[in-house]
Description:
Blueprint: E1 2-5, E2 9-14, E3 19-24, E4 31-34, E5 40-45, E6 49-57, E7 62-69, E8 76-80, E9 88-90, E10 94-98, E11 102-107, E12 114-118, E13 123-129, E14 133-139, E15 147-153, E16 159-166, E17 169-174, E18 178-183, E19 195-201, E20 208-214, E21 217-222, E22 227-231, E23 236-240
Antiparallel strand pairs: 1-2, 2-3, 3-4, 5-6, 6-7, 7-8, 9-10, 10-11, 11-12, 13-14, 14-15, 15-16, 17-18, 18-19, 19-20, 21-22, 22-23
Amino acid sequence: MGIAVDATSVYWVNDDSFTVMKVPLGGGALITLASAQPHPLGITVDATNVYWTNNYDSPVSHGAVVKAPLGGGAPVTLSSRPEGPDKIAVDATNVYWTTSLFVKKVPLGGGTPTTLKSDTVHYPTAIAVDATNVYWTDINFGFAGVDRVVKSSLDGSQVTALVSDQMNPSAIAVDSTSIYWTNGDEDTAVLPTTGTVVKMALSGGTPITLAIRQANPQAMAIDATSIYWLNYGTGSVIKLTPK
Length: 243
């Protein structure tokens, strides 16, 4: 369901087997970092830990935000009962995540979460962070073509919609100059290849469409030269160079 990478390994979560896994970049033996996780969904890494969300929502458990050492070890819950957490991001001091109504953060060592965004109209999905801002995508169910890409100061005091005429944005990434995101299909049953990949300057401005006719693009990653995304509708992984 989610994937992350560092200089040595690839990390991912398996929703069906409830595990957090890694494997060396060049291939090799699979390593289970955590098991018996209730529907792990989002994942990210820093220099010392892997972080993930457990999305399972029930009257007893409302999910969790969890971390474990990159080399393996006991998982540590940073936030419990955070209302079904979805995607996740990390910086030098905090972990950030989205739920169906909120964008939240908690210190790397755990503690009381801080709510950066809360409303009942826009539903945050993907999330990214850099040294000065948090970025996420908002979906407004029932109102086609008004989904948004949003940025906020790290403390949540300034929230700005950078663009508000998108369609089902579901992945986001950021580098030193630009924001990148995917727009999903308008209606996958009728228009299965109307997805796009878009970028915009960090300061805002006119979005630039980098790829069209994509089959419901969902997940995204970037490096120094390229953009990578998953086309869910065709089960394919795409690379675009230069970005």
